[in-house]
Specification:
With 386 residues, the protein is an alpha/beta fold. The chain has eleven helices and eleven strands. It has an eleven-stranded mixed beta sheet with strand order 1-3-2-4-6-5-10-11-9-7-8, sandwiched between helices.
């Protein structure tokens, strides 16, 4: 079937879609699974738009699929369409000044979360079984929690980024989200490297106790302990270092294009990029070294446990700029540990209103075990009333 283009009622979700847009390449474990692909991935025959019309106008059609798209198609999945992203993936709200804000079926008065906003909206609405996206600072985990979905940010480097438009390579990961944790795990079998699952001996939390932590520990039959050693981790200092490296890398990646296209980006997104233009090489190096030291100390304190962290509800669609900024910083404070340290983090949806999630953060290589935990938690109908 030929591409239909974005439907009138789905223009903010889809850039282009079909029935399917691109068929599977073979039969496999993902037979029958339809995928909403974030508009950062190369899909053969289509340009990559990166959430920006000026970028899209200049982009040639891809000659080959991104590695992750190819792997999913070889496993039997079909590409339902290419779904919108926040501009150049540098946002967490899921808003886009050019294409609009995708709907959030889980909370119509709230944003869907970004920057994997289009795929998340498509999955939450039942228009695709799987959303393929990226997570640099929380762009899988935030929309997963916002849409009552399961989502995985893998260990940094575990899934190839070939054919994916970068933002900040030190932190960029391929990630995915789904309504069904079984689908999430089957995708892990396709995309993740073969490895022995790193099962935890316990779950750990820092105060205050996140909603859903007790119920999850019960479902996984694991003790839940306080981890005061993470009190030595200054998350505000870590977030500052992370933003320094992220913005410096983002400007190094896209600064030349932004300079050549004045006014092409929304003001808030451009401001984040231009912050990186002022980061000196010395500050960049010092921030990266600070992150490396903090990572070593954190992993020693974790000692094989999994940390559970909240992923709060998305902000209201009509929130003012100050409210959005405060929400963004509070959200980043929770997501930055996995992002800065390159650790796997799986989000489980919580019951209650407004929608929110619980994130598992484990040591490198714990990806498959976290997916197994998501399946078990889903099977036991883990409850976490807010």
């Amino acid at each position: 079937m030929s591409p239909t283009g974005p439907a009138r009622d789905g223009a903010a979700t889809w850039r282009v879609r079909g029935g399917p847009l691109v068929p599977p390449l073979a039969r496999g474990p993902l037979d029958g699974v339809s995928v909403a692909v974030k508009d950062l991935f190369a899909v053969a025959g289509f340009p990559t738009g990166a959430g920006n019309p000026a970028w899209l106008r200049e982009a040639p059609p891809a000659v080959a699929d991104a590695a992750a798209v190819h792997a999913l198609r070889m496993a039997g999945a079909a590409v339902a369409g290419i779904a919108h992203t926040d501009e150049l993936a540098f946002s967490l709200s899921g808003t886009n000044v050019h294409y609009g804000t995708p709907p959030n079926p889980a909370a119509p008065d709230r944003v869907p979360g970004g920057s994997t906003s289009g795929p998340a909206a498509a999955v939450a609405a039942g228009e695709a079984e799987l959303g393929l996206g990226t997570d640099t600072a929380g762009s899988i985990r935030v929309p997963a929690a916002a849409g009552r979905l399961y989502g995985l940010r893998p260990t940094h480097g575990a899934v190839a980024l070939d054919g994916v438009l970068p933002l900040a390579p030190s932190f960029d990961t391929v990630g995915w989200l789904a309504r069904d944790p079984g689908v999430l795990a089957r995708v892990g079998d396709v995309l993740l490297p073969a490895a022995s699952p790193a099962h935890p001996a316990r779950l750990a939390h820092v105060d205050p106790l996140p909603p859903g932590a007790v119920e999850l520990a019960r479902a996984l039959e694991l003790p839940l302990v306080s981890l005061p050693a993470t009190g030595h981790l200054d998350r505000d200092a870590l977030l500052s270092a992370f933003r320094t490296v992220q913005s410096a890398e983002a400007w190094a990646t896209h600064g030349a294009w932004i300079t050549a296209h004045p006014g092409a980006l929304g003001e808030d997104v451009e401001a984040r990029f231009r912050f990186g233009a002022d980061v000196t090489e010395a500050a960049w190096t010092a921030a990266a070294a600070q992150i490396a030291r903090a990572r070593a100390a954190f992993l020693a304190a974790l000692d094989g446990a999994w940390l559970v962290l909240p992923v709060g509800p998305p902000h209201l669609r009509d929130a003012d700029a100050a409210t959005k900024d405060a929400w963004r910083m509070a959200t980043l404070r929770e997501t930055v540990i996995a992002s800065a340290f390159g650790l796997p983090s799986c989000v489980l949806p919580l019951r209650g209103s407004p929608p929110a999630g619980l994130a598992l953060v484990g040591p490198p290589g714990a990806d498959r075990a976290q997916l197994g935990a998501a399946v078990l938690a889903g099977a036991t109908a883990m409850s976490a009333a807010r």
